[in-house]
Amino acid sequence: MEFSTRAIHAGQEPEENFGAVIPPIYMTSTFAQEEPGKYKGYDYTRAGNPNFTNLEKCLAALENGQHATVFSSGLGGMSALLSTLTAGDKVICIDDVYGGTYRLFTKVFAKFNFQFEFMNMDDLQVLEKALQVGDVKVLWVETPTNPLLKIVDIRTLAQLSKKYGVKLVVDNTFATPYLQNPLDLGADVVVHSSTKYLGGHSDVIGGAVITNDVKLKEELDFMRKAMGFNPSPFDVWLTHRGVKTLAVRMQKHCENAMMLAQFFSSHPKVARVYYPGLQNDAGYAVASQQMRSFGGMISVEFKIDFESAKKLMKTFKVFTLAESLGGVESLVDHPASMTHASIPKEERDKIGLTDGLFRFSVGIEDSKDLLADFAEL
Ligand SMILES: *Cc1c(COP(=O)(O)O)cnc(C)c1O
Asked: What separation in Å is there between the alpha carbon of 193 and the centre of ligand 1?
């Protein structure tokens, strides 16, 4: 079946007792047992719940994978995934990884003697050398990255990691399975913050890990139960509700983002537009191959200083100043004063996070109203 059909029907059989088309929310912590150990598939919600199973079937189907496990948050899923490694194991990670992922690696798992190396993955020879030093178990990438929307070639990285027996993990939060399926390109594991596009309405936090490796699926389920990374059945139900409209939402996100990217490209107050859908963008060639379209995130460097940037933020009527992304409503983030404020200015400038840089999560409002926010730019 095609994507939109899977999004609506996978894991959504009408319920048995009354034929409810939408499965109910199994808001229960525990399940009755006929005799010790004899029960109908679930014993305690930390270990599993029918709502979890439904969403897992759906997300696995959307990523063309065999198995999914849902979690309390994206970071909860990543913590469970990392916990399947052993102290001393090494993770090589793309350098502009999501800030929360960086914090989890360097401030939490590093304490338990997990090894992390961060690198820009442009030079494959440097990467190949690094893959051979130490007990490298995982290569961890995002594409597109945050906030500079850099693209890495999943297929090439998958070939390279296979050669050295390393698992390739792709954080597919920005692209979503509607635009990109890393497992099809050779990745071993896909992680998601379902808080973003999958849920799509900025009303729930959640995460998921998808894989074809049944042994890893069992380990992930075990870690969720053992470490308490389970979501609430209600949150999972809400996420599942959101996922059904993923295809139509993504089409509109992509359309609006492309429109804004083109508008900014020829604007005199704009120094640079980061959007993999623009033909002059460094990521365009690879993105055209591995993504079906280019997504709803765009970053723009305006020719303004810190003070003018702060003023500009206050003029938006539709774009709401907020962290996070992927909801139906448009959001704007100013990395220099918000998400990346803890990095010293010289460092920020070096990596491109200048005072004039804004990151837009382009929503699905009417494009005329989105454009109007920049009328006085
Ligand atoms: C938000 C985000 C995460 C973390 O997910 P939470 O659901 O907030 O825990 C991880 N990776 C990316 C790319 C994200 O955008």
From this structure: 5
